[in-house]
Design brief:
By secondary structure, this protein is an alpha/beta fold. It is built from 11 helices and 8 strands. About 45% of the residues lie in helices and about 15% in strands. A 6-stranded mixed sheet has the order 1-2-4-3-5-6, with helices on both faces.
Amino acid sequence: MTDDVRKTSRGTAWRADGPADAPPLLLLNSLGTTFDIWKPQLPLFASRFRVIRVDTRGHGHSDAPAGDYSLDDVGRDALGVLDAAGVERAHVCGVSLGGMTAMWLAAHAPERVRTLFPVSTALKIGVQATWEERIQQVRSGGAESIADSAMGRWFSPSFRAARPDIVAWCRAMLAGCPSDGYVRCCAVLRDGDLHDAAPRITAPTLVIVGTADPVTPPADAAEIQRTIQGARLVSLDASHICAVERVDEFNTAVLGFIDEQGTRG
């Protein structure tokens, strides 16, 4: 673990970039990635915010406790990071699994969330049988065994052809994910369901989705928008990891929404 990475008492690794006195922006990663998935956003975001990036339990520098994980577990981990960073309220943005975690935060600790960005996510991602199959595959062959197929879901064909370097970087991140951590977080997605909790969310919310996302398609994003009162929706010409595939458009959407909410007081 580098000197810049800290751990909470729960074993959750995090790091902060940007001015210490800037408004905090919490970024939560997807299954099979580390907080480095947000590197494309970091130069711009850290010029305006105290950017706090988190490694989901079982990923990156974070500990991997035994047993299946739940959405409550990863949500409380995120709360622990805010506490450790001395942050009362943050803008919260999460992709896929991180998006579910972000919505959990907004529903269960509304006083901690200033604005909410559920990205490439759903109130319920996939079905139990699919996750059980994924768990068995990774248990037997490791994350490397799913890396190639995942890239086909994470990025559109045109992006894979145009930016093989970025795709290779993300593939290496996934292939290097510890099998135990990946499998235990699959249980979060297998069992996690926010249909009952999400209607309680009151934070200003911008849902972001890739129009070609096969994992959490536009219909999932539309359901989030309908469920969270006043939520808005932005669609990007991208697949699942739209923040990497469409960096400029993604950054513009996030910063524009935060600025707009700021002018509203």
